[in-house]
Prior knowledge:
Layout: E1 7-10, H1 13-31, E2 36-37, H2 39-42, H3 49-58, E3 62-67, H4 89-100, E4 103-109, E5 133-135, H5 141-158, E6 168-182, E7 189-209, E8 212-219, E9 222-226, H6 230-240, H7 246-254, E10 260-264, E11 267-270, H8 276-283, H9 302-316, E12 320-321, H10 325-333, E13 392-399, E14 418-425, E15 441-444, E16 453-454, E17 458-459
Parallel strand pairs: 1-2, 1-3, 3-4, 4-5, 13-16
Antiparallel strand pairs: 6-7, 7-8, 8-11, 9-10, 11-17, 12-17, 13-14, 14-15
Helix pairs in contact: 3-4, 6-7
Amino acid sequence: MPSKESIFISYRRTDSQDVVGRIDDYLSRHFGREHVFLDRNSIGYGDAFPNRLKQAVQVSKVVLVVMGSTWLSVKDNWGRSRLASPNDWVRQEIALALKQGLYVIPILLDGTVMPGPAQLPQDIQALAKLNAINLITRQSANVFTTLMKEITDSIERKVPALKPIPLEPFEFETARLVIVKKPGLFGGKTTVEISRSRSRAEYFAEDLGNGVTLDMVAVPGDEFLMGTSASQREATLQEYLKTISKENAETLTSLELPQHKVVVPAFRMGKYPVTQAQYEAIVGTNPSNFKGAKRPVEQVSWDDAIAFCTQLSQKTGKTYRLPSEAEWEYACRAGTTTPFYFGETMTPDLANYDGTNTYGEGPKGTNRKQTTDVGSFPANAFGLYDMHGNVWEWCADPWHGNYNGAPTDGSAWTTNGNSERRLIRGGSWFGSPVYCRAAARSSLAPAVRNFAVGFRVVCSVFPGLS
Length: 466
């Protein structure tokens, strides 16, 4: 079963439930919640409990065995030792972890004594020989934090795949559009002003050779509302009606419904769409129509983008892939709820699209009729560039006509879709601003190559994990 779990917490509820919550919170902040398994957080209602525990251990790298003062002596409802029963879930978790050769760390709470081999069933007697850490929980928070840091440091040393790639800070310019209404005769005048500011984020640079690098920005995990609200849909309908029929406009806006909450784990995303220099460094060719080392690669199909990710993964030893549609929209919005991360409208001063068309009260401007160098315009609040316009970007998901039944965990929606079409997001130099909105969706056949379509890549916080 595919899963992201990497650290499994084994415990007894009657023995250490409260402390385990603190351990889980600390580990989840450090490694990301999607990489920490705790039964009460990770097993859904209706799931087969024993099967889910077994599956979680099987995909984990580390098992923490939390042992309080009653861990060894807990009895069942008939007064029998739980640990003595082969059906005891805690015993099964530990036995499976030892059998798989996982990194097992016994955590002794507040002076609990490590059981000897004779006190343990035969299938987990090896536990008694493992070096344990005594976790003090009844003193200051600083003591607890110091000891938990020892545990995380030990995990990262023993399991390199769980050591995040070091990040470096970078500064960037971002912008917001402010609609200003000035009073006057005949209703006054409306103008759009650009408010620019500086911000900071973190990234790592992947060396592709010959002086070419791929900057991967740290995108924090959070929840957001994906899709279009009822009020925004009405405004979007009016924008579509400028160029298409009401029937087609209603169809296009229905693709963005229902709006729904999605919880997205932290990940790393390309600062820019993949450039021609980056594509050529990995694949060896440049299929683009508009040539330029710093321009986004285009004329690449979804199949080409998948092949690039495969070759990049092989070259770097990390797992690179296309973003899920949910990851893409979350990254594009960067905490905003407006149609564009710049605000309620757009201007060609902030993105590359057909500026002869307008959105809302935005001004008319230039139609550049070609791609531009990546990073030519301000970034969003996450430090990501060109998420509106320049080139459409392939996503991993097959096409679905709406969000009914969509995942809520940020993963790609791979079931019950139309695999003969794949998602594209973000709009392009060729299109109107309505198609560049954060919520706008479209699709193409996976073999299609188009001079307005490119892609960008993502990887896990722990790129060494699949």
